[in-house]
Amino acid sequence: MELVSIHGEGIAARCCAHLLRAGGVPVSTLRRGRIEASKHRFRARYERKDIELLALVDEAHDTLRGPARQKVLYREFHEFADSKYETLSSISVAHICNLRERREYRERRMTFEKTRPTRISSGELRRPEPEGRAGYLRIDTVHQGNLDGVKGVYHINAVDEVTQWQVVGATERSPEAWLIPGLEASLEQFPFQIRGFHSDNGSEFINHTVAELLNKLLPEQTKSRLRRSNDNGLVETKNGAVIRKHMGFSHIESAHADCINTFYKEHFKPYLNFHRPCGVPELVTNEKGRTKRVYKWYATPLEILRQLPGVARFLRYDITLDDLDRQAGRQTDTGAAIQMQEAKRKLFAGFQLEKTA
Could you count the other beta carbons within 10 Å of the beta carbon of residue 145? Predict the structure, then answer.
């Protein structure tokens, strides 16, 4: 009788004597169907539904960095009490990377990944010194490019240095007549008093008109020093990680500035400040006296704001922490991300309709 022995995953042909000692199986039995190994297998901690849920979170948040993604999963279960995330809420950053290599993850992302739409010297020359206080803003503009002589929209990116609270606006042109209304609208959306305004040496911000606007708000104005690229590093990082990531590099006509502003105010700003974790830098000095930033804590801008000592004195007179908490609690992190992505798809679809009209 011809016998075949099964060891682990493979099937190896052996002589009869060896098969009898090892416990062989007739070939005819194999032909009738697959024989499962009797080896005990432990239940996998992360099942297919968990991996697909991770893929859904990555799709909604446009694949955040590992620690930020870990924070979202933790908050979905512990902050918003969504039982689907119970297993993933304690996952490590390293194992998130492992699960992203799994076939189930790749199938989910491949199935649901949508095709992306074609997308006068004023101010003191120094770094701002917020000293742990909210209200010191970093400002920059991002241009969406020109095409065939048609001007592209300008994005105004404003980020608070301490809390990383971020407000993005859009304007049709960079010159003062167009920029100032957009800048005013952006500054009014911050929940705390504006104490400082820092930009690079670009003429759009370093001029008398901006200085007059800031004099009304009574903040200090500073600008980046020459050959000190890190002076405005925070907002420049957000230019790429937030604006370019979501709005892309392709040309968008300046005429769409109003539609973009509506999207920013109603969907993008709540997502960024209530539901998107950021890395909180901690300055560490080594034995050689060199200082570097390490990121041990990830939190949303609202969580960072809430942790500030005496936070109530930073807020505007018409806003309280309870107001902000109520806004943040209306949706889960991933629910807000999905809604934001849907609004963004409709926004870009509107651009395409006007092009083909």
Answer: 12
218 plus 80 within the same structural domain: no
- Read off the pLDDT of residues 194-236 as tens digits, 9 standing for 90 and up: 888 887 765 455 555 566 666 655 566 676 665 555 667 788 8
Angle between helices 103-112 and 48-60 (to 10 degrees): 40
Q: Determine the 3-state secondary structure of 75 from DSSP.
A: helix
Which residues, 6+ apart, have CB-to-CB distance to 63 below 8 Å? 69
196: three-class secondary structure by DSSP? strand
Question: 290 and 187, same structural domain?
Answer: yes
Q: Is 297 helix (H, G, I), strand (E, B) or coil?
A: strand
> Facing residues of 13 across strands?
4
Tell me the DSSP string of 77-105: HHTT--GGGTTGGG--HHHHHHHHTSHHH
H-helix or E-strand spanning residue 157: strand 154-160
Q: What is the DSSP letter of 230?
A: G
Number of domains in the chain: 3
Question: CA–CA distance from 60 to each of 85, 114, 119, 343 (Å)?
Answer: 15, 11, 18, 12
Six token digits for residue 347: 């926004």
Rounded Cα gap, residues 181 and 342, in angstroms:
28
- What is the greatest pairwise CA distance in the chain? 98
User: Is 40 contained in some domain?
Assistant: no
Q: How far are the Cα atoms of 125, 283, 284 from residue 169, in angstroms, in the given order? A: 26, 31, 34
Instruction: Tell me the pLDDT tens digit for each residue of 274-293.
Output: 999 999 988 888 888 888 88
- Domain of residue 304, CATH code: 3.30.420.10
User: Quick count: other Cβ atoms within 10 Å of Cβ 229?
Assistant: 10
Q: Which pair of tokens denotes residue 131?
A: 């000293």
CA 207 to chain centre: 33
Task: Give the torsion sign (CA, 228, 230, 235, 240).
Answer: positive
User: Which of 69, 52, 112, 65 shows the shortest CA–CA distance to 333?
Assistant: 69
The answer as to whether 280 is a domain residue is yes
